[in-house]
């Protein structure tokens, strides 16, 4: 089967009735990628591997530096332009590399977030989606970037988008985050903060002469635990504003009343709230108990699914859209004025888990939906 024949055959397959052959092929590619370790700041080997695969498949590909590359179309011309975006990095391993596979599932580090998505992107590019084929209604570009699993200030994506006007010309960016092949719109913003409590150290035999910082931390913990999630509505989608305690640290010895204690906070805030307002709200809630130091902040991403391209992809999936109850690079695209949404084969519940996995059927369905978008247009 030629590249064109394969693209047409897979592209016109039903999203619900997918090819076992296609799923197995993308699954094998996913396993291949899983077995190339690519923790954040260590993506060079997988970047070189993907570049070589695409170049050998006669795909137009350009290395952008900083372990990033772009393939296929990279500038809007006469036809609509859709940019698929996937990050090459993973969180640290949990004994789940190398990966494994059977007839239905691929398992291993990054299977869901997002080496399965990268495999879909690679196979679409190798099949010719992104070339100037007269049968195609939409031009596709494929952007592979680094350091997404770190705070947004360290991501390579925003500098790429700010420097490249061609990429910013996309009608739609599809961020291939794990969504279970449902379109998920927007994303939460995220503040990471340390919460410091000061007391006065002393001997544990005479605690009345000291001031226990752990007790102050405990008051703060009780206050945070009493907070209920706050729901925010955007275009019929519900995003939940939440504050979570993630780590605590205090004490120097078992016979010393601690004079200092620290907790880490993860604050997820909804679209429409600025970074400045989010940080101010976090301080207002927490600083009656201790001092807040903002470690990093990532903006939220707007809900933007009213474009013809977004509406067509939603129609192809046949599923209602959902809110993205997490931070994703949709926010980075939103920051440079590019409409973006989340869509990928992985299940959100499997992301970052020790038993991370992705189903072959989901890989094939993701490929088929995106190929239909390219072939049929909007």
What does this structure look like?
This protein has 378 residues and is α+β, with helices and mostly antiparallel strands. The protein folds into two domains: 3-187 and 301-376, Aminopeptidase (3-Layer(aba) Sandwich); 189-298, Alpha-Beta Plaits. Helices cover 31% and strands 25% of the residues. A six-stranded mixed β-sheet has the order 1-2-6-3-7-17. A five-stranded antiparallel β-sheet has the order 11-12-14-9-15, covered by helices on one side. It starts with a helix and ends with a helix. Residues 1-18 have low confidence and may be disordered.
- Helix share bin: 25-40%
Largest sheet: 6 strands, mixed
Give the number of DSSP strands.
18
Query: Order of strands in the sheet with the most strands?
Result: 1-2-6-3-7-17
Series of H and E elements: HHHEEEEEHEHEEEEHEEEEHEHEHEEH
The CATH architecture classification of the largest domain is: 3-Layer(aba) Sandwich
Helix vs. strand class: alpha+beta
Structural Rg: 23 Å
Give me the CATH superfamily of the largest domain: Zn peptidases
Head-to-tail CA distance between termini: 28 Å
- % residues in beta strands: 15-25%
Question: What is the molecular shape?
Answer: elongated
Give the helix tally.
10
| Mean of residue pLDDT values | 93
């Amino acid at each position: 089967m030629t590249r064109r024949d394969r693209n047409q055959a897979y592209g016109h397959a039903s999203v619900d009735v997918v090819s076992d052959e296609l799923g197995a092929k993308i699954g094998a590619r996913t396993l291949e990628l899983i077995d190339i370790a690519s923790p954040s700041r260590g993506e060079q080997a997988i970047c070189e591997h993907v570049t070589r695969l695409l170049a050998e498949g006669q795909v137009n590909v350009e290395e952008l530096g900083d372990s990033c590359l772009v393939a296929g179309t990279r500038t809007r011309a006469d036809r609509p332009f859709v940019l698929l975006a996937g990050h090459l990095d993973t969180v640290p391993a949990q004994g789940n590399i190398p990966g494994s596979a059977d007839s239905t599932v691929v398992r291993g580090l990054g299977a869901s977030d997002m080496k399965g998505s990268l495999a879909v992107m690679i196979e679409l590019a190798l099949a010719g989606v992104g070339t100037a084929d007269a049968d195609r209604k939409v031009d596709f570009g494929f952007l592979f970037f680094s350091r997404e699993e770190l705070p947004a200030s360290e991501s390579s994506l925003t500098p790429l988008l700010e420097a490249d006007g061609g990429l910013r010309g996309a009608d739609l960016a599809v961020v291939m985050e794990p969504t279970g092949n449902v379109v998920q719109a927007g994303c939460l913003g995220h503040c990471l903060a340390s919460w410091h409590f000061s007391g006065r150290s002393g001997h544990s035999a005479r605690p009345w002469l000291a001031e226990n910082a752990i007790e102050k931390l405990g008051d703060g913990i009780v206050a945070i635990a009493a907070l209920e999630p706050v729901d925010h509505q955007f275009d019929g989608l519900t995003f939940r504003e939440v504050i979570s305690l993630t780590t605590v640290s205090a004490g120097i010895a078992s016979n010393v009343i601690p004079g200092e204690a620290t907790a880490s906070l993860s604050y997820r805030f909804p679209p429409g709230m600025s970074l400045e307002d989010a940080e101010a709200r976090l301080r207002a809630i927490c600083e009656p108990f201790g001092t807040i130091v903002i470690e990093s902040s990532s903006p939220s991403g707007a809900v933007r699914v009213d474009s013809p391209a977004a509406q067509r992809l939603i129609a192809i999936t046949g599923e209602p859209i959902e809110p993205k109850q997490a931070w994703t690079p949709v926010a980075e695209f939103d920051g440079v004025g590019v409409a973006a949404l989340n869509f990928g084969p992985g299940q959100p519940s499997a992301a970052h888990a020790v038993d991370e996995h992705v189903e072959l059927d989901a890989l094939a369905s993701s490929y088929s939906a995106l190929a239909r978008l390219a072939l049929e247009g909007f």
